[in-house]
Design brief:
Blueprint (H helix, E strand, L loop, with lengths): L2 H23 L14 E9 L2 E6 L2 H12 L4 H25 L2 E8 L5 H9 L7 E4 L15 H4 L7 E6 L8 H4 L5 H20 L3 E8 L2 H13 L9 H8 L1 H15 L6 E5 L3 H15 L38
Parallel strand pairs: 3-5, 3-6, 4-5, 6-7
Antiparallel strand pairs: 1-2
Helix pairs in contact: 1-9, 2-8, 3-11, 4-11, 7-10
């Protein structure tokens, strides 16, 4: 077979695999008892050129979504409050560096619960060398043979650092358990040992803050719908997200088991309702600030030094012959 023929065969095989994968998602239908509360399906481009899927809000979901939208925080109010909180985050950053604190903030929650947006609001005005975001991909073959928490511990903070986990070792209690990526025994062992390990982490002097973002059914569906058609958000929607959407109550039970087993005095869970993203971000940031005692760190008064004129020359002329980016805007 020619090289081009082999490429066509491989491409065809990949498309077939995608179709098989998509077909598992398309099996979901509303229950006959309450058709309008379920998810109706028709076709638009999503997973691949040959795979088409769309979720459509039922009337009950539209009512809930409209109600939530009407009560949402206004943008101007949100932006003013966020700026004030971000000033406090800058003060916290200076205090963390001044006192050599070590902080871990981990975010968990359903898909489309608003974890990424909340983390972005926290890190927008602070240094990425102090507030470091860790979002690990699926474990490699080598990492699968390590102690489970090992790849997370590699990112634990040194003095003067705040590590933010966008999903964490609690993957084992959520997606791994629901999707069958771990055994029931591994899941049970994780829930048993996790509070013990976190006790060692806290006793070592690390401030551990665990945030769970809780989004409602109707709002999650609305956000998934928005991701389908918006090219700026389509990258957020993966086959795994669609499968998690189908297994709403499986994830609810996994959440309940996790909270019951790992909500401890030394490392409690903090639940943030996130149907209104703006309120959720503000509430979350304000709560995090309340959990870490801090005050303004002392700092020396800054004064710009006088520029030296030694070796002065026309330093703009050499740039005239350089490749300059066209000013299109």
């Amino acid at each position: 077979m020619t090289e081009s023929g082999q490429q066509l065969t491989q491409t065809g095989s990949r498309q077939i695999e995608r179709l098989k994968l998509a077909s598992t998602f398309l099996k979901y239908r509303p229950s006959p008892q309450n058709k309008d509360s379920g998810c109706r399906i028709r076709t638009v481009s999503l997973l691949a050129p040959c795979v088409k899927l769309e979720l459509v809000l039922g009337s009950r979901d539209r009512v809930m979504a409209n109600k939530n939208r009407q009560s949402r925080l206004k943008r101007k109010v949100y932006e003013k409050a966020l700026e004030e909180l971000q000033v406090q985050l800058c003060h916290l950053q200076a205090w963390v560096k001044y006192k050599g604190l070590r902080v871990i903030i981990l975010f968990e929650g359903r898909d489309a619960a608003g974890k990424g947006g909340t983390i972005k609001a926290i890190t927008e005005r602070v240094s990425p060398r102090t507030f470091k975001v860790v979002a690990l991909p699926a474990p490699s073959d080598r990492e699968k043979t390590e102690m489970y928490i090992q790849r997370y511990m590699e990112h634990f903070p040194a003095a003067g650092e705040v590590i933010i986990f966008d999903r964490s070792w609690y993957n084992r209690a959520g997606v791994e358990y629901v999707m069958g990526f771990c055994t029931d025994e591994e899941h049970a062992r994780f829930l048993q040992l996790c509070p013990v390990v976190e006790k060692y982490v806290v006793n070592a002097g690390i401030i551990l803050i665990k945030i769970w973002l809780e989004v409602g059914e109707a709002e999650q569906k609305r956000r998934f719908l928005a991701r389908i058609d918006d090219p700026l958000r389509q990258w957020k929607l993966s086959p795994m997200d669609l499968e998690s959407y189908r297994r709403w109550y499986d994830y609810s039970r996994a959440r309940d088991l996790m909270l019951e087993a790992t909500d401890s005095e030394h490392a409690p869970w903090h639940i943030v309702h996130s149907d209104d993203k703006r309120r959720a971000r503000l509430n979350c940031i304000a709560h995090i600030l309340s959990l870490i005692p801090f005050r303004k760190a002392p700092r020396n008064k800054v004064k710009l030094p006088k520029r030296s004129t030694h070796g002065q020359y026309d330093d703009a002329t050499p740039l005239k012959s350089a490749r300059v980016v066209p000013e299109r805007y």
